[in-house]
Amino acid sequence: MRHCCEFDAYDIWYLKDSEEFSNRALFIGDCPICNKHVAILTQRNVKTNSFLTIKKVGECAISFAKELIKEIVYSKNAINKMKFRPKPYGWRYGLNKEKKDKKGNTYVEQYAKDFYGNKELVKREEG
Q: Is the pTM value of this prediction over 0.85?
């Protein structure tokens, strides 16, 4: 992205295709020099097979992004968050916990834990 200088977008929204446009993406970022919001929409015109770029800065960028929220298919930040869920890895050990519910019934939960603090429920048995 470019405004006062060259910088990377902190999020990219991939948008639904329309009848006129395909390959739509909205790049969102903040200029590090002037701290203004910058939004750049890139899309390919289906009829002419040419790319169209729309750039908005400041308050216009915020309102422009709000209009396009309902057209989001997925975003880069959402996919990155899904990739890095903490799961136990490396050396693992088991942890059994006996618990009681409000009715007084007991059950045992079995967890797999690692030495980094990650924990995952493996099995729950009614007692």
A: no
Question: Residue 117 corresponds to which amino acid?
Answer: G
Which helix (H) or strand (E) segment holds residue 75: the answer is strand 72-75
At 30 the three-state DSSP class reads strand
As a whole number of angstroms, the distance between CA 39 and CA 37 comes to 7
Q: Round to whole Å and give the CA distance between 13 and 75.
A: 4
Report pLDDT digits (tens) over 4-48: 899 999 899 999 999 999 999 999 999 999 989 999 999 999 999
CA 18, 19, 21 angle in degrees (round to 5)? Answer: 60
Q: Find how far residue 12's CA is from the centre of its chain.
A: 9
Report the alpha-carbon distance of residue 101 to residue 5 in Å, rounded: 59
The Cα–Cα gap between 38 and 114 comes to 42
